[in-house]
Design a protein that fits this description.
about 120 residues; mainly alpha; 4 helices
Length: about 120
């Protein structure tokens, strides 16, 4: 599956996760995965819309995926160190964002390495 398409699919899942979290909890913080999803969706759309922008858009998306890993960790680690338990919904949303972003980041990195090897061989 092409990276831009995968990026848009993950973006849609993050947006749905945020919408569901907001509907259930009514808290604005539940929309954080959706904000990441919108930005990833823009990157995926730009990469499809303009072939010449693909490389740049996917690099920006990889930085966003890295933020999608680091931000949930930044929220979870201090809470867990203090021994507090976040709500089940918050934990689910943060872990979902973390896992989706981590998988996407690994796929990006593997793709970038493969592209670099192809350029080096050619």
């Amino acid at each position: 599956m092409p990276l831009p398409t995968l990026t848009i699919i993950v973006a849609a899942v993050l947006i749905l996760l945020a919408a569901g979290g907001y509907i259930v909890s009514g808290e604005v913080t539940a929309t954080f995965p959706g904000m990441l999803g919108v930005l990833l969706g823009i990157c995926g759309g730009l990469a499809i819309w303009r072939e010449s922008w693909r490389r740049h858009a996917m690099h920006v998306a990889s930085v966003l995926a890295l933020l999608g890993v680091l931000l949930p960790l930044g929220r979870l680690v201090p809470v867990l160190i203090r021994g507090e338990a976040p709500s089940a919904l918050a934990l689910f949303a943060l872990l979902s964002m973390l896992v989706l972003s981590a998988v996407l980041l690994v796929i990006y990195i593997r793709s970038f390495i493969a592209a670099r090897r192809r350029v080096g061989e050619g």
